[in-house]
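sorry for the late reply, my laptop died twice this morning and i had to redo everyting from scratch. anyway the thing you sent over, i finally got around to it. pasting the sequence first so we're on the same page, its 212 residues, then the predicted structure underneath. double check i copied it right bc i was rushing
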Amino acid sequence: MAALPVEIRELGLTLYAPVFIDMQTFTRNRTDKSADEIWLTEHRPVFTQGQAGKAEHIFGPGEIPVVQSDRGGQVTYHGPGQITAYLLFDLRRLGVGVRDLVCGMERAMLRTLSAFGVEGYGRPDAPGVYVDRNKIGSLGLRVRRGCSYHGLSLNVDMDLEPFSRINPCGLTDVGVTQIADFGPVVIKEVQGVLVEALAAQFELTLHRSGKP
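ok and here's the structure:
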């Protein structure tokens, strides 16, 4: 089957809430002919609480806002130096199910880590990507009318302190790490490798556009 086109949109540094609303609007208004898109961003500091989120997993957010999201999962942190990739896919057209999408995102992050000399792994009991018992990549999705939004976050070179204010993704048995903990890294380079890994994983042809 021929590779499907996907629009790559680089949003830069953003507030979470407006991008969240834009994802909902895009998904609500898309048709069978709408192209799939991947949105790339670094968010300003924010804690997002998933649909399964429990208040006790947030210890003390301080000055960082907490935003209720409609993705799956529990609480996580977004901030500068972390790549967040939102996958707005028509799953039926792509020929994948939700589990396939989750596994594909994990494999793309693992492939990206490997390119920078970092050995990661997945956990069958807790979606995401881990290195030495520390979480480095998170996942959260919502599917509406067969179309996905939200996506993944990969820690590259960021301030990890805010993670100490929460149980990341509701987990109490892991820490948090980032690629920069294993050597110097440039976030733009990581982003490029991640996008190519996602394209290879889901057999996509990349087209680059501006903001949505």
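The chain has one domain: 4-209.
thats about all i looked at so far, will dig more tmrw
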